[in-house]
Amino acid sequence: MASNETVVRFDGVSFEFAEFKPILDDVSFNVRKGTKITLMWQNGWWKTTIFKLITWELKPKRGKIHIDKDTSIAIAQQVIPLADRELTVRAFFQKYYKEAWFNVDAKIANILEVVNLKAPLDRFIKSFSGWQQARLLLASALIQDPDILLLDEPTNNLDVDGIAHLTDFLISYKKTCMVISHDAEFLNSFTDWVIYLDVFTKKIEQYVGNYYNVTDEIAARIKKENMKNAQLAKEAQANKEQANVFAHKWWKLRLVAKKMREKAEELEEAAVDVRKEDRTIRDFTIPLQEWIWWELLKINSVKIIRDHEATTVPVEVSLRRKQHLLLSGPNGIWKSTLLESIALGKSEWAIITPWVKIGYYRQDFSNLNFDQTVYQCLMEASDEKILEQDLRSMAAWFLITWDVMKTQIWRLSEGQKWLVAFARLVLQKPWLLILDEPTNHINFRHIPVIAEALDKYEWAMILVSHVQEFVWQIRIDDELDLGSK
């Protein structure tokens, strides 16, 4: 149960990066001990700024952040740093556990059991799959037994069973927890409070309840503000019209007309600023280049992990134009490995028709050149010559501004990398689209737009996604369940 004790307090905090506009302006809020809080942002960018301020990785430009010096804090980030990937499991946990170690192996084994992962302690982190690394990140935070647990997109790379396991853990978790996530159903299962940043005012709003409570309350507020302004505008217009009539009458009525004009001005000034909400990406299509009907991809066999061993099993998959395949199965069965082998042309059993152009979305964005600017990354994506004006116009569909276009990929947030990755797919015009968890890092407002674009996609597509609400919005012609093989 939450107490009245405050464990984090922001007093008039302002923050900005040198190259960007202010992110926080005179922000104040409290976090009570034992609460489970969701952080929501309108545009999906810079949510982790709050986490970095709490952990003192960043310092506020103005204001104060009050956290008791004896309060322990641990964060499970979205991705394991490159340097940490060279460590063994044992060395990885030793790095994050600062206290003296006794029964090291037993402590690690216990925490791995909590996150439902079996991992040899001498195995290197880089050899684990995305979902395994996600659980290692969570375990590295939990092993510190922190007073405040910070989770950054913890459901990324987890399948349905993994999310259920994490949900059960958080429901029973007794300490303070702050979570950044795009997964509404996951958030609604444990959230007590929501901290919401309005990116237009740069102010923090606090709401009691869960994700849906907040979106409903904001929608109701906008509707109420619009109705109030409409009523004020109607009354002001009526006063103006009546004033115009009186202005041409007897002189005493002209005084009435003056007062009515003044009343109309007062009514107009009383109009409230209607709450602004950020934009979604524009509706888009991934265009066709040519019209062909022959087979684009044929898969005769796949290699999967069964009982911790690699096994080759026969399948019959044939993809032509307008055919969408859902690839399903539990974490660790090598879905991502299969997608990568097909995308890179390294699969022994997948036959791709020559000259078929493949568009590949990787959930870790490792197929992007992080040293390039966004402009360079997008410009090289198209085989056709594209004018800078047209490129900037298309990028704007995905909310990519000119300032972002000049930024190197490695400096972008995960949400911004996602926008760049999808903009590239539009420019590539692929015949075969391979998507590995495309809703990871996505702003919840963009999901219906992405789903509609994929539903209407006219070429062949292979999709992996654990978000059923997203999958249900897309036309799926066939499903290959690797778990049943």
The largest β sheet comes out as: 6 strands, mixed
CATH superfamily membership of the largest domain, which one?
P-loop containing nucleotide triphosphate hydrolases
Total domain count: 3
CATH architecture of the largest domain: 3-Layer(aba) Sandwich
User: By helix and strand content, what is the structural category?
Assistant: alpha/beta
- For this structure, what is the CATH class of the largest domain? Alpha Beta
Tell me the number of helical segments per DSSP (H or I, 4 or more residues long).
15
Q: What best-fitting shape do the alpha-carbon axes yield?
A: globular
Q: How many strand segments?
A: 17
The helical percent reads 25-40%
> Taking Cα atoms only, what radius of gyration do you get, to the nearest Å?
27 Å
Task: List the quaternary state of the chains.
Answer: single chain
Instruction: Determine the strand fraction and express it as a percent band.
Output: 15-25%
Average pLDDT works out at 83
CATH topology of the largest domain: Rossmann fold
